[in-house]
Amino acid sequence: MPYVKRPITYPTGKVSEQTEQINVNFSILADAFYNSDPENSPIYRGAYVGISAPLNPKVGQIWVDTSVIPPLIKVYNGTSWLEVKPASVEIPTTPYVGQLWLDTSVNPPVLKIYDGTNWQSNVSNANYANNADTVDGFHASLTPAPNVIVPLNASGILDLSATYVKSSVYTFRRVDLTNATSDYMLQVGEEAIIYVNNQQIVPLHIATQDGTVYEMIISDSGQPAYLYPNNTSYSNQFASYRIYACVSSGNWILGIDGSTTLNQSAFFIWSGSKRVLIFNQTSYKRLFAHYADVSGYHHGIFASFWSDTTTPWTSLGTFDLSWNIRGFILVRRLV
Amino acid sequence: MKVWAYIHPKLNILCCALLQEAVPEGVEAIEFEVESPDDVVYDGIQIRLKTQDEKLQELKAQKLSELKTYVAGLFAQTDYIITKIAEAQIQNDTAKVEALKQRYSAQFQQREAIRAWNEQMKQKIRNATSLEELKTIEIRFEGG
Fold first, then answer.
1. In whole angstroms, what separates CA A6 from the centre of its chain?
2. Do A232 and B18 touch (CB under 8 A)?
3. Interface membership of A232 toward B (CB under 8 Å)
4. Residue B69 with chain A: CB contacts under 8 Å
5. Which of A193, A156, A191 is nearest to A176 (CA)?
């Protein structure tokens, strides 16, 4: 309901003086709730809500401007209406105490508050920048180091240098020994990949020792192929055999062949793609494998053993793949 | 490829190092250019390369062995027929023997073809005069 003054008609005499005083007080109080309230009277400034500014604004008066959605909160500074913003991204020219400013001149931006003299922040820029990349105090970096969090690199790979991963539990660490020039001792859970680029003779450059077990994936080889342990052939110290199934004249046939005596000088490897288990115990050095020829019509299993029980196997050795091959050899140390 | 051949001081056998650094310390090794370490032989007197004829005879033996295994695999596919006929013969059931011979005549012909092919292959391997010729001989029965 709009406010309308209704002056009191009072009688004459002593009572009328008191009544007149009451009337004056009521008028002052009424004006306090009217947007054109007198300047020198007790004033209650409630927020004025409307689609246009109040007619006689006073300094500090608040106007909720409902002409826009969402409404804007404005404050009168004696001359004009200033919009009250939660925080400005530009430094305010005439800041007021408690005003917020998002300082975008630093990266990441810092939220500051005006204390009447200066813009304050609860984080100093130096500390903020220094700690921005930490979790529980540990910094992030692409360069592995003690107490550093290493993210995936630009290729989506967690690339840990050779220096920092040594573990007795299974990991996914891989080393590329394609161009190695000296033997590398794989740790348990480490795997080495050797890319073969049109090569027949492939030194693995993997050091080994008594008590180790490896799994090996060979993308392809010809036949006969050999693994020369310790990069050496040992005359008539090896034997091997296989059980296979293949298609011949349109029929599947089963076959068994191989050595019946120690007549080989290295571990014999049959052709095609292979998965090989290698056991290196000085008194028990052998490998077992499943293989499939590239044609897909020849599958088999084979075993090859080194009869010598005293010579240590210290280097996994060198492959003779029988002819020039493009592919890879993956060696994973299991034990 | 290069190999460094030596007599292993403990095992007293011929070894060929594929990398020079694989030769045990203090051991004298002879360097050879070979196709395979198996090309080197120790004849009891000296370490030397195998002669062409030695290599040829080795490969012939290997091929013949491969052929024997392969042919055995081919026969194995129809060996059950022979077993059936043998059983009928033990039982003096001549009618059944004849019936089986009729029924499996195609398989008998194939077995004969395998035997003939096997003989031809053996002859071809034995008659080969060079490693190149021997390597081109593929052991694969296409008949039947």
1. 74
2. yes
3. yes
4. 255-257
5. A193
Residue with tokens 């922040």: A121
Across A324-330, average pLDDT: 95
Is A254 within 8 Å of chain B by CB?
A: yes
Query: Which residues are within 8 A (CB) of B15 and not within 5 positions of it... i.e. 6 or more apart?
Result: A232, A233, A234, A235, B5, B6, B7, B8
Instruction: Choose among A94, A44, A111, A49: nearest CA to A74.
Output: A49
Eight-state DSSP code of residue B51 = P
**Cα of A235 to nearest chain B Cα, Å:** 5
Condensed to tens digits (0 to 9), the pLDDT of residues A49-107 reads 999 998 888 777 889 999 998 898 898 888 899 888 777 788 888 887 788 888 888 87
Among A235, A255, A266, the residue with its CB nearest the CB of B13 is: A235
Place of tokens 């050899």: A329
Dihedral over Cα of A227, A271, B66, B2: its sign: negative
The residue extents of the domains of chain A are 174-333
| Chain A residues within an 8 Å CB radius of B143 | 249
pLDDT at residue A168 is higher than 50: no
Contact A201 B144 (CB under 8 A): no
This model of the complex carries an ipTM of 0.78
Residue in A206, A249, A322 to test binding to B, most B beta-carbons within 10 Å: A249
Tell me, what's the pLDDT at B120?
Answer: 96
Closest residue of chain B to A317, computed from CA coordinates: B18
Q: How far apart are CA B85 and CA A319, in angstroms?
A: 50
The number of C-alpha atoms within 13 Å of B134 and in the hemisphere containing its C-beta is: 22
Closest listed residue to residue B59, CA positions, set B39, B32, B37: B39
State the count of interchain CB pairs (< 8 A) between A and B: 76
Would you say B128 and B55 are in contact if contact means Cβ atoms under 8 Å apart?
A: no
Q: Looking at the complex, does the CB of residue A320 fall below 8 Å from at least one CB of chain B?
A: yes
pLDDT mean over A284-296 = 87
A230: left (phi over 0), alpha (psi -120 to 50) or beta: left
Give me B136's structure tokens. 């081109």
Residue B15 distance to chain A (closest CA, Å): 5
Q: Residue written as tokens 């029965």? A: B141
Asked if A280 and A312 count as a contact pair (C-beta separation under 8 A), the reply is no
Taken in order B17, B20, B26, B28, the sign of the CA dihedral is: positive
DSSP codes joined into one string, A33-44: TSTT--TTS---
Angstroms from A128 CA to nearest CA on chain B: 56
| A300: CB partners within 8 A, 6+ apart | A242, A243, A244, A245, A246, A270, A290, A291, A292
